[in-house]
Amino acid sequence: MKDLMSKIISLAKRRGFIFQSSEIYGGIRGFYDFGPLGVELKNNIKKAWWENIVWQRKEIVGLDSSIIMNPKVWKASGHIDTFADPLAECKKCHKRFRADHLVEDFKDSAKLDEHGEFTKEELEDIAKAIEKIKCPECGGELMPPRQFNLMFKTFIGPVEEKGATAYLRPETAQGIFVNYKNIVDTQRSKVPFGIAQIGKAFRNEITPRNFIFRTREFEQMELEYFVKPENDQKFFKTWVKERMNWYVKDLGLDPKKLRIRPHEKDELSHYSKSCVDIEYQFPFGWGELEGIANRTDFDLKQHQKFSGADLRYFDEKTKKYYLPYVIEPSCGVDRILLALLCDAYQEVEGGRTKTTKSVKEVEILLKLNKKIAPIKVTILPLVKNKPKLVKKAKEIYDLLKSHFNCQYDEVGSIGRRYRRSDEVGVVFAVTCDFETLEQNDVTVRDRDTMEQERIKVENLVELLKQKLEK
Ligand code: GAP
Questions:
Q1: pLDDT of residue 307
Q2: From the CA of 326, how far away is ligand 1's center (Å)?
Q3: What is the DSSP string of 111-129?
Q4: CB 278 within 8 Å of CB 247
């Protein structure tokens, strides 16, 4: 299964989905760049989320708040004091690791044998377990774990002094809480209502890993849904269902590879009363795509206390003031993108097209959901050395490009061009041949079925739109 991950990483790089950041300088750990196909895929994921969350629900509005905020926000939210992971450092090589991840890894029995017996209690108490675990890099002894704050610091203004310290946001959620009053006042929002935001978040992860699964800069899609305190668990359950549906119905992820995992009591974050994760079965194991938490009135209460602003909501019916509770579905664009790539990746032994059968290769098919696929249509002249044919194909490209994200490809045999487009999940291939010049029709090939049909050029846009909507 690890092998599948390296194949996906290699496809992502080879075809321009994802590159290592600053690669020509040797890269920088935990940071990635999204290439021409990656940025399209990301935009389509974000659009699908925004449409589902904001456009389709009249009580939810959008927001785009700043990444750097008044540092008091992070004091109030608890991030300055508690947003930390346990770090274990090797006494010999001084490499640093996430202590809880080391313990998780060592739960694998083969490793336990090498390191002697662990009791259940030792495995649950990270500090105790670490005493028995050796450095995975050099075998040296590890120092006792200490808490490491994950927020990136910077300075505001020209002087690098303590009073000028600011933080890159580790979650977009706080931007929503500090704008809660602005939204209520300007939008006349009535509980229950929601505020949604998509944006970058930054965490100085001790051990970024699994490609874009755990990085130091990533994008979140977060919704804070404000409800009456007594209705919190009802809305919590509703949102868990809604969000699971989105992954299956809107993104087309395989439901067998999705699961809901409730948090254990000792796993809950400092702000939440209950929380579940929606997890995907990646080639490296189950991993969180989204957390859905009941944050209670923790954040509004804290911001009210630290800012002095009155954040209570006035209920017109009961004429009473209260602080709403918050249900928060929060997911990561990068992790969803990785799950989509893993889910869509298929290898066809011996090939799907005639070209590959002759060379006995394996063909790659990226069976991405039609709505999410980065390129919808590729336009192919049958041959590139017939100027009339090329001109016609370019005219068709011009016709389609204002409706769909298209590409024009004239290099190589038609079979090779089909393969190239299947590999990145292009949904339809439109081929112009000699008949096109006489009949004004083209061949439309479906990526998944490989069926081909002849379509009049004047009906092409409508037909492709219908097929993409199906
Ligand atoms: N506001 C709540 C919050 O931030 P979280 O579980 O820490 O909760 C929410 O993060 C989502 O953000 C996760 O489910 C994951 O998809 C994404 N995420 C968190 N840390 C990440 C990282 N280091 N790299 C990539 N995505 C990350």
A1: 98
A2: 18
A3: HHHHT----HHHHHSHHHH
A4: yes
The domain made up of 84-149 is a member of CATH 3.40.120.10: no
Query: What spacing in Å lies between the alpha carbon of 330 and ligand 1's midpoint?
Result: 7
Angstrom distance (rounded) from CA 430 to CA 460: 9
Task: Answer for the pair 293, 330: CB distance below 8 angstroms, yes or no.
Answer: yes
The 10 Å CB-count burial string (b at 16+, else e) for 219-234 is: bbbbbbbbbbeeebee
- Domain 366-469: give its CATH code: 3.40.50.800
Q: Are 375 and 347 in contact (CB under 8 A)?
A: no
The pLDDT tens digits of the residues spanning 312-340 come to: 999 999 999 999 999 999 999 999 999 99
Pick from 295, 351, 296, 356: which is nearest to 322 by CA? 296
Ligand 1 centroid from CA 233, angstroms = 22
248 DSSP assignment: I
The structure tokens 């004429």 sit at: 319
Question: Angle at which helices 387-401 and 460-469 pack, to 10 degrees?
Answer: 50
Given pLDDT bands bounded at 50, 70 and 90, which one contains residue 33?
Answer: very high
How many Å is the maximal CA-CA distance in the chain? 79
Cα 465 to ligand 1 centroid, rounded to whole Å: 35
- Of 378, 333, 315, the closest CA to residue 172 belongs to 333
Cα–Cα separations (whole angstroms), residue 319 to 185, 251, 296, 314, 315: 17, 43, 21, 7, 5
Best CA proximity match to 208, nearest among 325, 334, 114, 103? 334
Q: Which of 218, 270, 289 to mutate to test the pocket of ligand 1 (most atoms within 8 A of CB)?
A: 218
Residue nearest to atom 7 of ligand 1 (CA): 171
pLDDT in tens, 149-181: 999 999 999 888 878 899 999 999 999 999 999
Whether cis (ω within 30° of 0) applies to the bond prior to 192 is: yes
The DSSP letter of residue 283 is T
Residue type, position 125, single letter: D
* CATH class, 2-79+154-341 region: alpha beta
Residues of the chain with CATH 3.30.930.10: 2-79+154-341
